[in-house]
């Protein structure tokens, strides 16, 4: 059931006096406000979908903005499953939305190495 976004920027991105930075989202250039997390900047830039649920396929967007709900998962600079609400925004970031569950083994050049890294990663992958 679609609803209007509950997030409204206090200052519109690109408005006079509002400092912005260039990032890419799914390969498209985007100007977003500086000085916040990736998730806050994307919301302020008008982005409403960050990922699709692997269960239902429904669009998901940040909910808690403090790292608890995992609805803000994005691929940031080639690293999947990053919580956008916890990552400080930097100029030139390459950000991609995530669709469904990631298949890290299928994406890896060497599945055996990817599996070993996933098992040894302290915070998961």
UniProtKB/TrEMBL annotation:
Top-rank taxon, per record: Bacteria
The keyword Oxidoreductase is annotated on this UniProt entry: yes
Record's keyword terms, sorted: Oxidoreductase
Protein name as annotated: (2Fe-2S)-binding protein
Organism of this sequence: Variovorax humicola
Taxonomic lineage from the root: Bacteria, Pseudomonadati, Pseudomonadota, Betaproteobacteria, Burkholderiales
